Amino acid sequence: MEKENIQRMPLIGDEAPAFQAVTTQGTINFPEDYKGKWVILFSHPADFTPVCTTEFMTFATMAEEFKALNTELIGLSVDSLYAHIAWLRKIQELEWNGMKDVEVKFPLIEDIRMEVANKYGMIQGQSNTQAVRAVFIIDPKAIIRTILYYPASTGRNFDEIKRIILALQKADRDSIATPANWQPGDDVIVPPPGSCGVAKSRMENQGDDQYCLDWFLCFKKE
Ligand code: BEZ
């Protein structure tokens, strides 16, 4: 019996699926070309659409901020390379929200055959031929750390995507977690205690650098 080629959608904690793709910046091999870097791989429904245009202007304007966080951007849609090139040239002519002469320097994948989109589960119920607004945050070991999906009618919040990168990097560096609405500089959360002894000593030893609301909810001061 022929084996069905069923692909499971990648999940948080999975190794990010590898691919080779033609892009507006030449051919890329993922993850080899991105060793040691964080990557934001994101898809949009189509070139020359209004919400996507505002997203590209915003993301391209923030590209240097992401670079400073050792983070590279890769876009994708089910459009041809020539449509991508024409759209990115048009974007450079537009002015919106204080942004103008915006040059999109990060690669935008041509994925007419939906090979990469299918590997990442970017084609969903809304259309058989267009990707949803997906965001995959992938760490320097090529592990998927965050997945976001937005509906077609809602442009993404790129400040939030940056906040997630900052929170993940902080959590990895300091073995902490970050509370709701955390922003850099805010106090962080100490992971829950693994024993009754640790719970007791945390409550008893609160001081200059750490405080607890209860045994399971302790903060480290920043
Ligand atoms: C947009 O980017 O404006 C858009 C794309 C697909 C469906 C609806 C809106």
Structure description:
- 27% of the residues lie in helices and 25% in strands.
- The protein has 2 domains: 19-156, 3-Layer(aba) Sandwich (Glutaredoxin), CATH 3.40.30; 175-222, Antioxidant, Horf6, Chain A, domain2 (Antioxidant, Horf6, Chain A, domain 2).
- A hairpin with a 5-residue loop joins strand 8 and strand 9 (144-150).
- The longest helix has 17 residues, at 158-174.
- The protein is built from 6 helices and 12 strands.
- It is α+β, with helices and mostly antiparallel strands and 222 residues long.
- It starts with 18 loop residues before the first strand and ends with a strand.
- It binds benzoic acid (BEZ).
- Benzoic acid is lined by residues 45-46, 49-52, 152-153.
- Benzoic acid (BEZ) binds at residues 45-46, 49-52, 152-153.
Question: What's the SSE blueprint?
Answer:
Layout: E1 19-23, E2 26-30, E3 38-43, H1 50-61, H2 63-67, E4 71-77, H3 81-93, E5 95-96, E6 99-100, E7 108-110, H4 115-119, E8 133-138, E9 144-150, H5 158-174, E10 188-190, H6 196-204, E11 210-214, E12 217-220
Parallel strand pairs: 3-4, 4-7
Antiparallel strand pairs: 1-2, 3-8, 5-6, 8-9, 10-12, 11-12
Bound molecules: benzoic acid.
The site of benzoic acid has 8 residues, from α1.
